[in-house]
Specification:
Number of strands: 10
Helix content: 40-55%
Structural class: alpha/beta
Strand content: 15-25%
Strand order of the largest sheet: 3-4-2-5-1-6-7-10
Length: 293
Amino acid sequence: MTDEPRAVSVVILKGGVGKSTTSINLARQLAERGSTLFVDLDPNGHATNGLGFEDAYHAETDLGDVILEGAATPGDVIRETEYGFDLLPSSDSLEDVETELAGAMQGSARVKSKVVDPLLGEVYDYVVFDCPAYPGMLNNNALVATGNVVIPIEPGSSAIGGYKRTMERLIEPAREYIDVEVLAIVPNKLEDRIDQRTEDRELLESLNTAEHEVNPGQPLPEVVPEFARITEAEFERIDAGELEPPKPGIRHRAALSRSLSHEQPLQDYAPDSDQIAPYEELAEIVANGGIQR
């Protein structure tokens, strides 16, 4: 079902913005298109534990054994989930792995050589990485391994700051050595009206009207998915009362927060949810290697 195998990192240098929720549900929808591996590269293990694999998080053989010493293969660690994708779980030793990678030969290429190169296109059509919320060797490994990035972002005074930090401290430095493509900026956790001066409105305006380039030759609005795209003319019509205010972005829903406490992606916890469609669109963006308007 896929034209080209693809790996992608879900990353932002800010905690609590829905990164694990985005990556889990992206992996779930990609699994509808082809064989998918979800890699939890975040030492806090929020996604691993949220999918019900606490035992794997504390297992004796873990992801560190795969990427540091080669004492294990991915197959020794990968777990099958009930949701159509496999999981390469995080572990409580990954913070130590972060430190050891800094002094390792080709330390930024270990995840690529040990995980992605042997699996992508051979075993899996898609590989999705959930990344730490701080700069370091694990994030560097994810960028080298995937070359593709999805950035989730939420409303609030620090939202754009988190995005800018991610670009300035992670993506731009990596681009000095490798190609990194931002496939999508994903506004999520939205719940307010956009016909008033809310934080939701401010976030959507800033994303949809920015002039700076996020990829070479590609301004920021071009990487905003259709489910979050509002043009300047549409904002004017909304303000004039000529257009019913839409509800763009991934919206806050109780089912989204409850799904992880029930150890399930949204598709399986609440299959009738109106928020599954944005994740389907996001999966299509990843499968296509970018937004096609």
